Amino acid sequence: MSDSCDGCGRAVEDALARAVRLQVDDSTVDDQRLCPTCFADWITRYKEKMSPKASKESSDSEIIVD
């Protein structure tokens, strides 16, 4: 069985597909089927955004006081 990658649209065989599911309080927030290349890109973006260095840099600059 072959479906398409949610990232690039290329056909992906089951054996090569990676499923990414993000759940909050048992409710699915995001569910993607990705080819190996798009999965590697997703992991890189995740690491960059979730690293303590990234959160420290953006924490003060994005606060808006009204």
TrEMBL record:
Pfam families, sorted: DUF7569 (PF24453)
Protein name per the record: Small CPxCG-related zinc finger protein
Species name: Haloferax mediterranei (strain ATCC 33500 / DSM 1411 / JCM 8866 / NBRC 14739 / NCIMB 2177 / R-4) (Halobacterium mediterranei)
